[in-house]
Amino acid sequence: MGVLSLRRFFSRALLWLIVKLLVLAVVLMAISLALGKIYQGWDDDPERGAVAVENGAFGEGYATPIYLDQGWSANDSLWYYNTTQGSALIPYDFFLALEQAESSEPFLSTQLIDKYRYLPQKPTFFNPDGLPVGFVKESYKGQDYVGFTCAACHTGQVNYQGTAMRIDGGPAMADMVGFLKDLERSMAAAAENSDKNHRFVTRVLELNNGYADSGEIQADLKRWARKIRLYNNINHSRVDYGYGRLDAFGRIYNRVLEYVISPAQLRDVLAGATNPDNPGQNLLTPAQVDKVMEGLGETIIGDLQFARVIDRLMSTKEGYPGLNVDALNQIKSLIFNEPNAPVSYPFLWDITHSDYVQWNGLANNAALGPLGRNTGEVIGVFAILDWTAQERGWSLSSLLTGQKGKSYQIKFTSSVDLVNLSRLESHLKSLTSPVWPSLDTGTNNPEQKKANALFGALPEWKIDWEKAHRGRQLYAEYCESCHHAIDRTDWNRIALANMSHLELAGTDRAMAENGVSYTGYSGNFKNTYQSESVGSLVIQERAPVVQTLTAVTTGEVTTAPDPDKWWPRRGLDWLYLLGKSLFDNQIKASVKSGDYWPDTTAKPYNSLLAYKARPLNGIWATAPYLHNGSVPSIYDLLLPVKRKDDPENGLYRPADFKVGGREFDPVKIGLRSEGYEGFNFRANQRGDFNSGHEYGTVHAPAINGTKQDALTDPQRWELVEYIKTL
To answer: Residues 521, 526, 527, 529: is their CA dihedral positive or negative?
Structure first.
C-alpha cells in the first residue's frame, strides 16, 4: 500500500471516528435530557412542600397552603422551586450552620424566613434540607452554594382568615434588602463572637461537605462576609424598598459595572475624586492611590478585589487615606448608580407568550431574548463571575461583543446555568393565571374544587354577576385598549405589551428614567460597536449601562455553558440552546405596540421612557398595584390622586399605607393596608409616587383629543367585580 493510500485510509478512519464520537455524544445528550425529564417528575409531594405557619409575622398564622388550578401538577411546582439557575449567595454549609445575629436560633428558622416574607418549606425529594421556596443548592467547580431561583421572587401567597393560597409565578412579598442586611449581621457575628464562631465551625465540620479544617472555614467565612457587606454597601439606597419591591435593574447594573470597570479606569476615578467638603482638594494623594491599587492586576477586578479596595480606602494604617463614610460615598457615586427605583416583582404567567417584557418593555422576547434576559437576572442575584482576561484570539463571544481586536479579551466563565435557564423558560409555557377561588370554571382539578368549596360559601368572595356584566362594558370602554383580554389557556396566545410614554402614563418615572440615564465605565468594551434599532453605536468610556449590560449578556450567552462539563458536552449544550431559542420560541421579532416616543439617532433609547400595559388575567392575586407597588388595591387604583385644589372630602388614592401583610381584601381586590405593624409606605418621593394611570377619574388624560367621563363610585365597584373574573 502506497503512502498516499495510507494517508487516505487514516484520513477516512479519523473522519469516521469523529463522526462516531459526535453521534455518540448526541445520543448521550439525548439520553441525558430524557433522564432529566423523567427525574423532573420524581418529587410529587401532594402539598408541594408547603407548611403551616403558626404565629407568623404581623399575626398572620396560616394552615398548610392550598393551590389553585394554574396548569401545573405538584412536581411541576416543585421542579420550578428547586431548579438552580447558577446563583451562589454563600457556601451551602454556611447557610445551614449559620445562627441569627441576636440569638442562637438558626438563620434558616421558619420565623426568620417568614419575617422577610419568603415561603418556608418542608424537606422533599428535590429539597432534602427544607430550604424556602426559591432557595436551592448550586454546585459549581466542586463547591456547593445556596442561591436564588426564579421562584424566590416569583412565587406569591395570599391569605384569608387562616387559609393560605400559594400562587405559582405570582409576585413575592419578599424583603430581599432586609434579608441580606440580616445575613450580613449574622455572618459578622459568626466571625466575631467567639461562642458563635465555635458553634458555626463545629456545625460546618459536622456536615462533612467539602471543608476539611477550621482554618479553611474561618478564611471562607471572612471572605463571604466581606462579599455580602460589599454588595449591601454598593447597593444602599435612600429610597426604602420595604416588602414586595426591588430595584432589580439598578442592582444588576451595579454588578456589571463592578466587573467591567478596568483597573486603569478605577485608578483615574481615585485620582480625580475631590473632597465633598472642599471641591478644590483631591481626596487621595498620588501615593495613596498607588497604595490602594497595589497588587490589583491590570484586567478584571470583581467582588473580592473591590472589597479590598474599600477596606484600603477606609484604612487608617500608614500610607492609606482613611476616608470617612461621606468621602467613600463620593467615590462610590463616581463608579456606581444608586438603585433607587424599586418595582414590584412581575408575575410570570404568560411571560413566554409575551412579545416584550420588563416594566419598561426593554426586553424583546424573540429568539435569544429570553436567554439574555434571564442571564442578566442571574448576574444580578449572585452568579459567580469567574471572568478572566485572555490573550487576543478568536471566539464567538469576543467577535459578537466587539473585542476581537482588543489587546486582551474577557473570557466569560461563570456559574450561570444557561441550560436550566432555557428549561425554566420552557416550563413556564404551561403556567396559567390563577382563577378567582370561588369561580367554578368546570375544571376537574381537585385543588380548584377545594378552593371553590371553601370560598364559594363566603358571601364576600361570591361574584355578583349582574355587576360583573356591567363592569365588562366599562372594561371595554376604559381599559381594553391597553389591557387586552386573552384566553388564559390558549397555547398560542400572545400577551401583547402596550407601551405608554411617561407623560401619557403619568406614573412614577424613576425606573424608566434610571434604565436609560444611568451610566458607568465600560472597561474593555470601550470603542466597540453595538447594533441598535437606529444603527450601530460606539460604546464610549463612560456609557449607558444598558449598553454594557447588553455586551455582557451577549458574551455570556455566546460562551459554551457550564465549565463543570466535559467540553464536547458544553459545545452540544450550546448548539441545543441555540436551536431551542430559534425554533422553539413562538414569539417572533415585532414592532412594539402603543403610544411611545420613538428611538432616534440622538436618543437611541427614547422608546424605553415608557411603561407597559399587559393583559390583566390573574391580576387579582398580584397586589399592590402600579409598577412600583404604590397602590394597595384595584379599587384604590380607580380613584384619583389628590391635587392641592381638590376638595378635602373626596375619594382619593391612599398616600400612606402598610405593606407586608398577606391578608387579602376580596372586596377591594388587594391586601390589607392598615391595622398592623408592617412597612409604612409613603407616596411622597421619586420612586414611591402613586401618580398616573388615572383613567376613568376626574384627572384622566385626554386620549386622541377626547377626555372620557369620570367613573361614578357604583361604576368603580362594577369594574372591580368584573376584574375578579379575569
So the answer is: negative
Which cell numbers in the block locate residue 115? Answer: 419575617
Separation between Cα atoms, residue 302 and residue 299, nearest integer Å: 10
DSSP 3-state of 359: coil
Supply the pTM of this predicted model: 0.93
In the prediction, which pLDDT does 456 show? 86
Cα 354 to Cα 150, 492, 497, 571, 635: the distances in Å are 17, 11, 7, 29, 26
Torsion of CA 107, 108, 113, 115, to 10 degrees: -30
593 has which bridge partners? Answer: 498
Q: What value does the CA radius of gyration of the chain take, rounded to a whole number of Å?
A: 27
The per-residue pLDDT for range 160-193, each reduced to its tens digit, is: 999 999 999 999 999 999 999 999 999 999 999 9
Q: Where are the alpha helices (DSSP H) in 315-368?
A: 325-335
Which amino acid does the sequence have at 683?
A
Query: In Å, what is the CA distance from 68 to each residue of 431, 438, 450, 516?
Result: 11, 10, 9, 39
- CA–chain centroid gap for 547, Å, is 19
Task: Determine the Cα–Cα distance for residues 96 and 146; give it in Å rounded to an integer.
Answer: 9
How would you classify residue 662: left for phi > 0, otherwise alpha for psi between -120 and 50, otherwise beta? alpha
φ and ψ at 293, to 5 degrees? -85, -5
Q: Which residues of 646-677 are buried (b: 16+ CB within 10 A; e: fewer)?
A: eeeeeebbbbebbbbbbbbbbebbbbbbeeee
What confidence category does residue 560 fall into, taking pLDDT thresholds of 50, 70 and 90?
Answer: confident
Is residue 314 a contact partner of residue 328, using CB atoms and an 8 Å limit?
Answer: yes
Residue matched to cell numbers 436567554: 371
What is d(CA 453, CA 446) in angstroms, rounded to the nearest whole number?
10
Nearest residue to 545 (alpha-carbon basis) of 307, 416, 318, 379: 379
572 closest CA partner among 9, 140, 26 = 26
Neighbour-count burial for 8-26, b at 16+ CB within 10 Å, e otherwise: eeeeeeeeeeeeeeeeeee
Q: Amino acid identity, residue 84?
A: T
CA distances 496 to 94, 164, 361, 587, 593, Å, are 44, 31, 11, 11, 8
- Partners of 344 in beta bridges: 245
Closest CA to 612 of 453, 468, 499: 499
Q: Can you tell me the mean pLDDT for 70-76?
A: 95
- Let me know if 214 is exposed, middle or buried by CB neighbors in 10 A (0-12, 13-18, 19+): middle
d(CA 364, CA 645): 42
What residues does 158 pair with on adjacent strands? 165
Identify the three-state secondary structure at position 98: coil
Three cell numbers at 722?
A: 368584573
Can you state the angle between helices 567-583 and 3-39, rounded to 10 degrees?
60
How many CB atoms are located within 10 Å of the residue 285 CB? 12
DSSP states along 237-306: -SS---SSEE-HHHHHHHHHHHHHS-HHHHHHHHHH-EETTEEEEESS-HHHHHHHHTT--SS--HHHHH
